[in-house]
Amino acid sequence: MARSSDNPFSHKNSPFEYPLVSRLRRLRGRLVLLAFCSVVLGVVLAFRFSRSDLLSEGPLHSKHAFLTDNCQACHVPPVGGGHATMTDNCMRCHDHADGKGFVANPQPHGNRALVDALTADRKAKPDAQVRSGFAALVNALPGGRMHQGAHAAIACTACHQEHRGADGNLIRLTNATCQACHQNVFESFAHGHPEFTALARRERSLKFDHARHYGSLFAKNAKGKERIDREGCVACHRLPDTVEDYARSVHPVETSCLPCHQKDLYSACVTVLASQPGKDAKAPLVPQAGAFAAFALSLADPAKRPDLARIHDDGVLSALLPGMPLLSGVGEEPLAVMRTGKNGVDGVHTRLRPETWTAGRFKDDDADAEEHADKPTVLVYRTSPHADRAVVESTAWLAGLERRLRADNRLPSDWTKRSLDLLVEIGVNCPKNETDSAGCSKCHYAGVTANGVVADFARQRPALHFTRPFSHFVHWAERQHVGGTATAHGPDDCAACHASVKAPEGEAKNDPRWQDLRVHRRGHDWKTLGIADCRTCHKPDTVRQDCTTCHQYHQGAAVAAGR
Amino acid sequence: MAGWQVGQVPGAVAMILNYWPRRLRGLVATVAFVGGVILVAAMQQVRLQPNAQWTGWLLIGLFTALMSFSLRKRLSSLPIGMAATWMQWHVWMGFAAIGIFHVHVGWRLPVGGFSWVLWLLFWAVSITGIIGLILSRFLPPLLRTVGNEVIWERIPEEVVELHDEAAGIVQNNLAKSEGMVLAGFFFDRIGPWLRRPRFMWLGEGEQRIQRHFINLSRLVGDDLREAVEDLEVISREKMLLDRHYFVQGILKGWLFVHIPCATAAYAAAICHAAIELWFRS
Prior knowledge:
Chain A is mostly helical. Chain A is built from 23 helices and six strands.
């Protein structure tokens, strides 16, 4: 398109000297190159000068803020990281099963062995309860279930998401993730959640009769009534600070029971040995405690049985029967002075001559024995009024011995009778009349059941399932959470959830509910909380009802140890 | 494809099946693909398995496939399918990428600085792509109303030819009595306008041009009447070229935003993947 520059009609000044396509493509190409280079250069510069700020996926949680400039504290270094994982790095700080807030026991609910034991039969035989929904579908797929093997690993990051900001939510646990393992898949807390009574009913250690106390006993005792009216439930109950404290939900006996029941406590005299003058002094009466001791001694390995002539020496008894306390005393004064150590009785200083013990005979060589020469001589152990250490240790030792014998399949056929006789003898149990029982069993559950000896005064029996500590509902924490004011979860509103049932009418001992309470350790005098109680508030569109509201994955040291 | 008989299926569905079979297939395939990804991600979440990595690699693959559409247009001579087919794949994969991007991010807003850059770039690409898709559906019918089909890249040359033709008409009539009047009109009124294409619709330009030429016809004699009419025809053709230039310019101009944003997003995604691999998180 030739044009002369001096021609006023020429198109010489047109900007379209070059083909439009070429110019546009060149312009677009430059823009693309500029965009690409800008991003790459920006990333390189950020990585060089401020990588933790700009390249980070987001600020760390405030509790991890001190690691902001130390990426490799959590992230595995690209060189020299070995086979370590990010979970390994997490556990470098969090492997503290201390039972308090910093717990990070990585095992499912703190105890892999317990979980495996509980789920072993489920794997072989699916639960007959409702199984539906998406989680159930996923579980049914090959490889769908979590925790399949004992070594299945779950990365911390599966549930804990970092780089969500200083106040971001570190936990990403949905109902569906919980139901990956829990086969009883249900729609929600409001629909299908198992009833609490089937899971969370806890065996009681006290035969405390709430209805009777509130119905009549408190009214008869002005001091008790005044205290109950003033303090309410917390007069006896304490509000646990943590889940781990739930086992100690009642104040010590000195503050909860003894203010009213001081006179009801008395010492028991446990007969150890007895001789009857005029009869065969060489064949003393051997009461149950002594008989059981002899019986227990007979169960000991003969090869390990010590020289009974040296039984008074330090350490002989504890070596023979580890942990077995010695019940020994006479009249109003102790006949024997026990020296107890960490491992039970370390020795005995007694006026019983070892040779008479070994021969199964009793000879009183006390200087004052002449005064009693014509009377039966009874050697007794006089217990303290409450929580006698020797009695408590004896029952614990008895249960432990039974477990060992049962495990070794050496439990004698007459074990039950003998152990029950021993409990009667030491005043723990009185099987003749349940309602009029005396001694320890008046308030404590003690006896011989199908499962063996039951007399666990020292500590509450742990739940087989982790239902109780599994729930992190803490009354005290709930109250603090709302600024110390009484709420539906606070102590002032105990009765809002815990309602008493009426006292039984007629013959109490025939009431199956009281049979439950006294024999089967089921506390029916105080209404067990049901799921319906919680659903009055925790329902859709009102109060949250997801799994993590009440349940927690990580458990403390007590649960992890199976205690 | 045999059409559906109206009456067998509801009217709206019949219309979709009859007139949009390709779109329907693409829509169903995309929804099924994204739904499958969401389903697998939910299953993985139930299994406490991470979703970020595999969805990230899936996104990188999708980005690469989407970027290859630009190369396909440059390599038009290669027998690798019709451009229209590529365009359909590009559109539906783009929509799929939007869904998978949210699965990857976790249905939340980003927190970190670089994450925000990635998020904004992705949405810039997505929004410009959707806008381009809408424009490509609504502007071509507008061009049909303009008529006078012309290739956008040839518009400047067409304009130059019109300018030169108009200049030739003026030059040829300079010797006539009102020739200078015609030349003045050319230099003052239509010459600058004819010199280059204008990026405007000129909605009121038609009346203005008509008014100019009515005034011009009053000033010149009958001997220049034919030249004036020729110039008016040239001006109207220029006005139509401007409309083509405007509409087609929009159709091509959005790519000046879309493609650089896509390139930046792709580069950022590659850097993001490299950083993630570097930290093995």
